[in-house]
Write a structure and sequence with these properties.
With 371 residues, the chain is of the alpha/beta class. The chain has a domain of 211 residues: Rossmann fold (3-Layer(aba) Sandwich). 49% of the residues lie in helices and 17% in strands. The protein contains twelve helices and eleven strands. Strands 5-6-7-3-8-9 form a six-stranded mixed β-sheet, with helices on both faces. Strand 1 and strand 2 form a beta hairpin. Helix 3 packs across helix 4.
Length: 371
């Protein structure tokens, strides 16, 4: 029930036949409130027939049509009663084709007809239409009157057939802005039909494509817009050849300036870092030189000491002959002492020496004393 209540129109297996010709065959269609729909297709595909059935100007041959979950009411003659909440841009023809435009507008809007005349029929281009009958109007003039009445009627549902076909581009832009305003501010549900897709795809939220009385496909605005394109890398973008554009060139120039400034900052930072590294390297080199100099001094001291020892060894080694001679002399002295029986030194050695003459020893000391 909640899903049905929020639908303005609901169509179920709707058909319309003109004798043996099947003009319309729609299996299912749902129209939501506050949305702009567009029926798109070639002439004779069933757009006008569907709008006339939705507006109540025609009755379907078979199938069901619900307006806010209700079926259209009919009179004693089986004709559908007019609904004041639905306006069809060609529906005012039912008031009588022999009447003038002014009389029909005054019958439809009452006192508001004076404001409508001043607002739309005061210019020289459309002033003559006020007193002309509907039967004498051309297709373009009739379409313009229907667009004006559509904007002034302020309905809940607005149905516009052959949108933008008989008006200029400036008039179409003006009507389009008014329709958007009605949809946004008043929440009006709008259904337009046009053979030109480019004319309605910019402001219609849902496109309904028709062909031979059937609905071929339905496309919403989200499906038509698609996913946003990914940003191309700068390298790939630079390699591609694109046409020159002033706005883009200014943007790129500003980006280039920013890149240059960033590169300058980076180079300055790199230069500072390199200077710091150079300073640190110089300090390291100085420290290395100091340590190497200290090591050299210590090594030189050690080498000098080693040189002294070597020199001593050399001086000692240079006098081997003197040492051997002294050792030989000492050995000879020891041997001589052993031979003579005196190992140690004796002062009275000369006094104890006796002379041996003819096998007799003489005591020289006593002899000297006697003498």
């Amino acid at each position: 029930m909640n899903e049905i209540k929020r639908l303005i129109f609901k169509v179920d297996r709707l058909k319309k036949n003109y004798g043996s010709l099947e003009a319309l065959n729609v299996k299912k269609l749902e129209i939501h409130p506050g949305t702009i729909y567009a029926l798109v297709g070639p002439p004779g595909c069933g757009k006008t027939t569907l709008l006339e059935i939705l507006s109540g100007n025609q009755k379907q041959s078979s199938g069901d049509l619900f307006f806010e979950n209700l079926i259209y009411e009919t009179n004693w003659f089986g004709k559908i009663k007019r609904n004041d909440e639905i306006f069809y841009n060609y529906g005012f023809e039912d008031y009588g084709t022999g009447k003038s435009v002014g009389k029909i507008i005054s019958k439809m809007y009452g006192k508001k007809s004076n404001t409508i005349m001043k607002r739309h029929f005061s210019s020289p281009k459309f002033k003559h239409l006020w007193n002309r009958s509907l039967s004498s109007l051309t297709k373009g003039e009739l379409h313009w009157v229907g667009m004006v009445l559509s904007l002034e009627s302020d309905p809940r549902v607005l149905l516009i057939d052959e949108y933008g076909m008989y008006i200029t581009n400036d008039m179409e832009k003006e009507f389009r802005s008014q329709l958007k305003r009605m949809n946004k501010t008043l929440g009006t549900t709008i259904i337009v039909s046009s053979p030109n897709e480019d004319l309605v795809k910019n402001f219609a939220s849902v496109l309904i494509f028709m062909d031979n009385g059937h609905i071929s496909k339905v496309r919403s605005k989200s499906n038509r817009s698609g996913r946003p394109r990914r940003r191309i890398r700068k390298d790939g973008y630079a390699n591609k050849k694109t046409p020159y554009n002033k706005s883009k060139s200014t943007r790129f120039s500003s980006n280039k300036e920013q890149r240059k400034s960033d590169r300058g900052q980076l180079t300055s930072k790199h230069s500072d870092l390199t200077q710091k590294q150079i300073g640190s390297n110089n300090q390291k080199d100085k420290n290395k030189n100091r340590t190497s100099s200290h090591l050299k001094k210590s090594n030189s001291g050690r080498s000098s000491n080693r040189g002294g020892v070597n020199n001593r060894q050399k001086t000692y080694d240079n006098n081997p002959r003197k040492n051997t001679e002294n050792s030989k002399k000492a050995e000879n002295r020891k041997n001589a002492q052993k031979n003579y029986g005196n190992v140690g030194p004796n002062k009275n050695r000369d006094l104890n020496i006796g002379k041996e003459i003819d096998g007799n020893k003489l005591d020289l000391r006593n002899q000297d004393q006697n003498e």
